[in-house]
Each structure stands twice: as structure tokens, then as C-alpha cells.
Amino acid sequence: MESNGSAQPLPRLANNARRRRPLISLTPLIDVVFILLVFFMLASSFLDWRSIDLSAPARATAATTLEGALLVELRPEGIRLSGESLSLDALAARVAERVARRPDQRVLVRPARGVPLEAVVDVLDRLAGAGVRSLSLVRSQGG
Asked: Is 21 exposed, middle or buried (0-12, 13-18, 19+ CB in 10 A)?
């Protein structure tokens, strides 16, 4: 060690104290994060359950109440209302016009095999938007 006479070297312990940063323990932080993770896993619901109410009428009553009902057939090639091919917009307009005259108008929707469920739901949604209150889904014969 060189000494010029006036400057005294600092003791080694004091020099190390300046460089040392305060230690922060990560264990409590990890504990808190784990507890929050468990809390949110237990408190959260990741499923969105929506149910559709379906009521199946008895066969004897179904036959008597189908008189005067509109029949909407969904086929892979298109939509038919009482045998006439229509677009979805035209179907909604025609049914809305009919429901305006007869608010208790029953509408039967019969999807054929091979029709995607999305198309059936679109038609049911449009018919419900047209004001149909009595809407039934009919199973096609043999399917």
C-alpha cells in the first residue's frame, strides 16, 4: 500500500458496506402470488353454460295443435316456406307479416339431414326476431 502521508486507506469493512445492496427476500412475494393464483382458480368459472328450454308435447296434443301452422323446411339447398323456396330475409319478412295478422301463429321448423346446426339456429333466431312466439322444431321423418 502506498501512502502519501495525508490520506489514510479506508477500512475494508466500510468499503464493502457501500457496495452491498439491501437484500429483498422473494419468498413472501412467491407465496402471495401462489395464494392469488389459487384464489382466482377457485373463484373463476371458465365455462359459459347456457341452456335452451325444450318442451316435448305429447303426441296426441301435437297433432291437434299443428293445424294452421307454417312449415319452414331447412334443406341443404335452401329454405322453403310451405313448399316455396325463399331466402332467409324473405322468410323473416313473410313470417313477420303473418304474425302481425295472427299473433298466435305457430311456426314449425323442420331441418333435413345434413343441414348444419348453425343454419338451424340462424333461422330460429330470425323467426324469433320476426315476432314468432310459438316456434317448434320438428324432427324429420327417419332422422
From this structure: exposed
Please report, for residues 38, 40, 44, 51, the alpha-carbon distance to residue 47 in angstroms, rounded to integers and kept in the order given.
Answer: 18, 14, 9, 12
Question: What is the helix (H) or strand (E) element at residue 38, kind and residue range?
Answer: helix 27-43
- Residue located via cell numbers 314468432: 132
Q: How far is CA 109 from the centre of its chain?
A: 23
- Supply the pLDDT for residue 24: 80
What's the mean pLDDT in 74-98? Answer: 90
> In angstroms, rounded to a whole number, what is the distance separating the alpha carbons of residues 120 and 112?
10
Of residues 67, 94, 121, the one with CA closest to residue 85: 94
Distance CA 139, CA 40 (A): 43
pTM for this entry: 0.55
